[in-house]
User: Which sequence fits this backbone?
C-alpha cells in the first residue's frame, strides 16, 4: 500500500530551508567578499586595521562556536529516516502515528553514550542511548530510550549521585574517557543494591556493542497508553534490529578499538547509510491491561525491572528505517529530546524515575541553548503547527503580527480543543495516600531479576560478565568496594562471586545458607543462545571483511572472494603492506587492486573477519611481515572467522600450532572448517566462500583456546 508522505515532505522542507545557496562567500549580512584569506593591513607587512569587519566577524563567530555539551549523553551520532506502522494499535492508543497505517512518519534517531564527552571515544563499556523523535501529525513524540531495558536507580533523586560517581573522580579528574572502572563508581553502585540488575546488563557484552545498527532499544519505563474510548493500559516500548541481530564484541578488542578508530560506531553508521545499507529496526510494544497493573511480583513503576516476555509477549507492529545523514551540529548536537514530548494517546506513568526526567530535560536544555526558543530550530520544530502565546526570549525566530498574545481575548482567540487535545486520564489516586518519601514494597527486591538475567546467559556470556566485573573491580583500589560488590554477586550467583573473588585475589564471602537462588530463566535475554538468543539467525549483510594480500597475489582467488562477499552484501576491504595499487601475479592493469588500508593504518579489531589470498610472491611478503601475522593472530584471539587459501595457509602456523586448529591438508580437495578457521588448498572455490560466510554468520568462535596465541 502506498504511504502518504506529506509529513516526510513537510520535515524535509523545514530542514532544507537552512541550506546555503550561492557559490560565493558572503558576510553574515549577505555581502559578497572579494578576499577571504588576507586580513586588511596597512601595507603588506603592516598592522591589521581595526576597520576589517570581515576579519572581526569571522573570528567572533568562531570564538562563539561552542555551546555546552549535554550534561550526560554528550557523545552521540544521529540519522534521519521514517517510521511505518504495520499493525494498528487502535485497540490501545489513539496516537495517530500508531493507528494510521497509511502514513510514513519522519523520524530522527540519536544514539549516544551516557558518560563519554562529546569528542570522547566510541567504544566504552557504557549504556547506549537510543532516542527517537517522531515528527507526527499531532506534534513531536520523543521516545528517549536506552539499549538495555533497565536503569541502575529507581528514583530521580539519585540521578545526580549516580552520574557524579561515574564521572572522573573529582580530585584527579581521572579516568576521563567515559569509563567506569574506578573506585567512586563501584563505591556508589555497591551502596545501591537496586542497581544490581542493570549492573548485570552493563557487565554483559550488550554494553560493548559491535555496531549501533546491532543494538536493541527499550523505553525502559512503563508508559501509559490511552485509546479513543479513554481506556488505559500500560506499555513498554521495544526496538530490535530487523535482520542484523544484536551483537557485542570481545572486551580485549573493545580496549583496542578506541585507539585504532575512536569513531568506530559513528563511522559504521555513517558508512552504512552512505552505501545504501539502511539500518532497519522493528518497533514493538508489551501492553499490560489496566486490570493486571498489580499482578506481577515486581512493580510496573520500578525502572530496574523488565516485564519478562514470557509473561507479556512483544507485539511487533512497525518498522524504523534510517536512510539519511544529519548535520552533526544542526541536528545531532541541537536536537533536544524530552520524555515529556508526548502526543494524545501516550502518557507517562507514576514511575518516580520518569517523573524526575519530565522535569530535567527542558531544564537542562535551557542551559544548553541559553534560551527557551531552541524549539524553533529546524531539528526541533514539529511538522504540526505551533500556536500559543509563548513570546519573545533570546533568539526568537518567529515574527508575530497578531494583536493578542494572551487568551482569552476580545478577538478571535486561539483556544484549546477537547477533541484534539492530549487527554488527561482520570486515574484514581491511591485511597488514603499521604505525602511520603518512600517506595512501594515491591521495589525492595533487588536480586530476583539480576539472577534471572545471569541465569539466562549462556556459559560464555556468564564468563564475559565475570571477566568484565574482574576488569572493572580490578581497577579499583579500595578493598571495601571489592568486598561489598562480592557480597552482592554472592546474592546473585555463587559462581560469579567465587570467580570474581579469585581474579581479584580476595577471599570470597561465605556461601549464603539461608538464601534462595532463583533458577528462573528467560529465553529472550541472551545474545548467544542459538535457540532464541538475539543474535540467532542474523544476517551477515554489511559485515566488514579484511582481505589481505600483497604484490603478486592470485587474481582469480581475489575475484572469487570479493564477488562472493559482495553477493552476500558483505563489505570487503583490502589490507596490504602498503597503500596504492597492488599488482596481481598477472601484472595486468585490470587485475591490480587499490589497497584500502595497510597493516600500519588499521588493525584487525575493526573487522569482523579476515581472508588471506594466495599467490606465492604475495604470501612470501606477508609471511615476512610481523604486522600481518599479528593481524591474523589478533583475529584469532578475538574469536573471528579466518579464511586462507593455498599458500596463504602458511600464515596460519601460530593458529594451527598454538590454537590447535585443524587445517586442510595440502593434497586435500575439500574445504576444512575448524573453530571458524576455514582453509582450502584448492583455490577460493564457491564452497570455500560459502563455508567462510557461514562462519561469518556465527559472528565469533568463543570456544577457542587463545591462551598461547602470540599477538
Ligand atoms: C532521573 C533520571 C534521569 C535524568 C535526570 C536524566 C537526565 C538527562 C539529561 C539532563 C540529559 C541531557 C539532555 C540534553 O541536554 O538534551 C539526558 C539525556 C539522555 N537521557 Fe536521560 N536522564 C535520566 C534517566 C534516563 C533514563 C532512564 C534513560 C533511558 C530510558 C535516559 C536516556 C537518555 C538519553 C537517550 C539521552 C540522550 C538524548 C539525546 O540523544 O539527545 N535517561 N538525560
Assistant:
Amino acid at each position: 500500500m502506498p504511504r502518504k508522505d506529506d509529513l516526510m515532505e513537510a520535515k524535509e522542507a523545514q530542514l532544507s530551508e537552512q541550506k546555503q545557496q550561492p557559490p560565493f562567500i558572503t558576510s553574515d549580512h549577505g555581502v559578497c567578499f572579494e578576499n577571504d584569506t588576507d586580513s586588511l593591513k596597512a601595507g603588506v607587512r603592516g598592522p591589521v586595521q581595526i576597520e576589517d569587519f570581515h576579519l572581526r566577524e569571522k573570528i567572533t563567530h568562531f570564538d562563539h562556536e561552542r555551546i555546552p555539551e549535554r550534561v550526560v549523553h554528550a557523545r552521540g551520532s544521529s540519522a534521519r529516516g521514517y517510521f511505518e506502522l504495520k499493525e494498528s494499535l487502535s485497540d490501545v492508543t489513539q496516537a495517530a502515528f500508531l493507528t494510521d497505517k497509511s502514513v510514513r512518519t519522519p523520524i530522527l534517531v540519536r544514539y549516544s553514550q551516557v558518560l563519554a564527552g562529546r569528542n570522547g571515544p566510541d567504544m566504552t563499556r557504557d549504556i547506549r542511548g537510543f532516542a527517537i523523535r517522531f515528527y507526527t501529525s499531532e506534534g513531536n513524540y520523543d521516545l528517549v530510550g536506552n539499549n538495555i531495558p533497565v536503569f541502575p536507580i529507581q528514583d530521580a533523586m539519585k540521578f545526580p549521585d549516580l552520574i557524579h560517581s561515574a564521572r572522573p573522580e573529582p580530585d584527579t579528574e581521572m579516568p576521563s574517557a567515559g569509563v567506569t572502572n574506578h573506585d567512586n563508581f563501584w563505591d556508589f553502585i555497591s551502596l545501591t543494591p537496586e542497581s544490581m540488575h542493570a549492573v548485570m546488563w552493563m557487565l554483559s557484552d550488550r554494553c560493548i556493542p559491535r555496531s549501533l545498527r546491532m543494538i536493541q532499544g527499550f523505553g525502559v519505563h512503563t508508559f501509559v497508553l490511552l485509546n479513543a474510548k479513554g481506556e488505559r493500559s500500560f506499555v513498554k516500548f521495544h526496538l530490535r534490529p530487523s535482520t542484523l541481530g544484536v551483537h557485542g564484541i570481545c572486551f580485549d578488542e573493545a580496549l583496542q578499538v578506541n585507539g585504532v578508530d575512536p569513531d568506530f560506531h559513528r563511522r559504521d553508521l555513517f558508512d552504512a547509510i552512505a552505501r545504501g545499507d539502511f539500518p532497519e529496526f522493528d518497533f514493538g510494544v508489551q501492553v499490560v491491561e489496566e486490570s493486571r497493573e498489580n499482578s506481577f511480583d515486581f512493580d510496573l513503576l520500578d525502572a530496574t525491572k523488565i516485564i519478562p516476555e514470557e509473561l507479556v509477549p512483544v507485539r511487533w507492529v512497525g518498522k524504523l528505517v534510517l536512510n539519511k545523514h544529519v548535520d552533526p551540529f544542526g541536528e545531532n548536537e541541537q536536537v533536544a529530546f524530552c520524555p515529556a514530548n508526548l502526543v494524545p494517546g501516550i502518557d507517562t506513568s507514576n514511575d518516580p524515575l520518569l517523573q524526575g526526567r519530565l522535569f530535567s530535560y527542558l531544564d537542562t536544555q535551557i542551559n544548553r541553548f541559553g534560551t527557551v526558543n531552541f524549539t524553533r530550530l529546524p531539528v526541533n520544530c514539529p511538522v504540526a503547527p505551533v500556536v500559543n502565546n509563548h513570546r519573545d526570549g533570546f533568539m526568537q525566530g518567529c515574527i508575530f503580527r497578531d494583536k493578542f498574545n494572551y487568551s482569552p481575548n476580545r478577538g478571535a482567540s486561539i483556544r484549546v480543543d477537547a477533541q484534539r487535545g492530549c487527554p488527561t486520564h482520570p486515574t484514581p489516586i491511591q485511597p488514603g495516600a499521604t505525602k511520603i518519601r518512600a517506595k512501594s514494597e515491591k521495589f525492595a527486591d533487588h536480586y530476583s531479576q539480576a539472577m534471572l538475567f545471569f541465569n539466562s546467559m549462556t556459559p560464555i556470556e556468564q564468563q564475559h560478565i565475570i571477566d568484565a566485573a574482574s576488569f572493572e573491580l580490578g581497577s579499583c583500589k579500595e578493598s571495601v568496594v571489592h568486598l561489598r560488590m562480592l557480597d552482592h554477586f554472592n546474592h546473585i550467583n555463587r559462581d560469579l562471586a567465587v570467580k570474581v573473588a579469585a581474579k581479584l585475589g580476595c577471599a570470597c564471602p561465605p556461601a549464603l545458607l539461608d538464601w534462595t537462588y532463583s533458577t528462573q530463566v528467560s529465553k529472550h535475554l541472551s545474545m548467544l543462545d542459538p535457540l532464541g538468543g538475539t543474535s540467532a539467525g542474523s544476517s551477515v549483510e554489511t559485515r566488514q571483511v579484511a582481505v589481505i594480500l600483497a604484490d603478486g597475489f592470485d587474481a582469480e582467488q581475489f575475484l572469487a572472494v570479493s564477488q562472493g562477499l559482495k553477493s552476500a552484501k558483505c563489505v570487503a576491504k583490502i589490507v596490504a603492506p602498503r597503500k596504492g595499487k597492488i599488482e596481481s601475479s598477472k601484472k595486468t592493469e585490470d587485475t591490480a587492486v587499490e589497497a584500502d588500508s595497510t597493516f600500519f593504518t588499521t588493525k584487525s579489531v575493526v573487522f569482523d573477519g579476515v581472508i588471506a589470498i594466495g599467490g606465492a610472491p604475495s604470501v612470501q611478503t606477508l609471511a615476512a611481515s610481523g604486522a600481518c601475522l599479528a593481524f591474523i593472530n589478533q583475529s584469532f584471539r578475538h574469536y573471528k572467522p579466518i579464511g586462507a587459501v593455498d599458500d596463504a595457509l602458511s600464515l596460519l602456523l601460530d593458529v594451527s600450532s598454538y590454537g590447535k586448529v585443524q587445517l586442510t591438508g595440502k593434497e586435500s580437495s575439500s574445504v576444512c572448517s575448524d573453530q571458524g578457521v576455514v582453509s582450502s588448498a584448492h583455490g577460493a572455490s564457491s564452497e570455500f566462500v560459502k563455508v567462510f560466510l557461514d562462519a561469518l554468520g556465527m559472528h565469533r568462535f568463543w570456544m577457542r583456546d587463545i591462551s598461547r596465541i602470540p599477538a
DSSP finds 18 helices and 19 strands in the chain.
